[in-house]
Amino acid sequence: METFLNSLLAIFTQVGNLLFVPLIIIILGLVVRLGFKASLRSGLLTAVALAGVGVILTLFLNTLQPVAEAIANKMGAGLKLTYIDVGWPACFAAGVALPIGVSYVAIGVLVNLGLVLLRWVKTIQISVVEPIMGEGLIGYVAYAISGNYFVGLGVALSIKIITLILADWQQPAVNDFFKFEGVSLIQTGVNEFGLLGWPIAWLLGKVPFLKNRHFTADWVQEKLGVFGEPMFLGVIFGIGLGLLAGFNYIQIITLSIYLAAAMNILPRMIGILMEGLIPVMRGVGDWLQLHAKGRKVYIGMDPAIGTGHPAILTTVMIMIPITVLIAVFLPGNKVLPLGDLVTLVFTFMFLVVPNKGDILRSVITCIICVPILLWSTTLAAPYIHHALTAAGVIDGSVPTLCMFEGGQFYWYPVNKLIELISGHVLPILQ
Predict the structure, then answer these.
(1) What is the sign of the dihedral through the CA atoms of 277, 279, 282 and 287?
(2) DSSP 150-215
(3) Is this prediction's pTM over 0.85?
(4) Could you report the per-residue pLDDT of 219-234, keeping only the tens digit for each?
(5) Do 404 and 338 touch, CB atoms closer than 8 A?
């Protein structure tokens, strides 16, 4: 039995959403009587689009990674920031290596289904990858502190429920901004930033200089014509970031072409994805109207499908050097952003959406929120470092973390509370 479970886990972690999400889409299509051929087509289109998004997003992230590291190393030269950001893959590897956290994720899937059936939430999260490095990993640390399996489970499920509620709350904005019909975006470390993004966007909308301006990607393209297209913006940002990183002219040309490719192709992949999802979601809507009038169900997708929006890509490329600059001079910060600088494309998603894609207001909102991200990560750092060490991902000799995980605001307050109640402290904190 243990061998079977390990094999099943290996399949999901290696293939992940490419297997799980299309399978759910096909099953949903059959349940709502869309027909086998139509359901299969929707599932395959979803798989193809997710593969395309994954390839192009990986190209975008891998292209920007050395740029971000070069900028961070140049700006942070001579500084001694305590923790090194090694990027989210380390936390994902830790989540997979810690079976307790994986069990929390599996139970969370059942709880999610139960809450939907009870009509307490509308989002069904159909990804098994993101929760592993989200509530599963935080739950493990809670278990490590308390020594009690059910304390860790309670923490993981509580975070799961909060994230589902936030996904439900933000779904209308996702629908308006991305035109994702019947789809919500859900991931810990992403949805929570909407709690900051919405009030800041509201305040910025009251500022005379900003409220009547609409510095969106469409506005840029209208003013600049062909030079305002996402493809040309990729070239412009490639040149600017390449010069800032100290690249030679060959590296700058390569960087510019790759960024242009990512900004041009990603939105096309999202179009294919929605071609697969929309028939099923319409079928679900019709089925619910027939069998449960007034009821809504959202398909909770990985926020990766929203990263192709030009306003998000543009905002993140502007914010990479600004984030490093803030980290260098921010009092109380102990984190050197490196590995997860490029994942700001996820972290900042719900800072851009509330501003309706206005790039100027989005950048201002991000600048306001970066110190909160860095302080949160600094407080969470010992707990994340413990999880990485316990999983054997790092040897523990160098203080290490994942900034994307640190952006999940639960790490410090939840585990600090458990320390106070249980009277136990992780060895690394003693």
Answers:
(1) negative
(2) HHHHHHHHHHHHHHHHHHHHHHHHHHHHH--TTEEE--TTTGGGHHHHHHHHHHHTTSHHHHT---
(3) no
(4) 666 555 555 567 777 7
(5) no
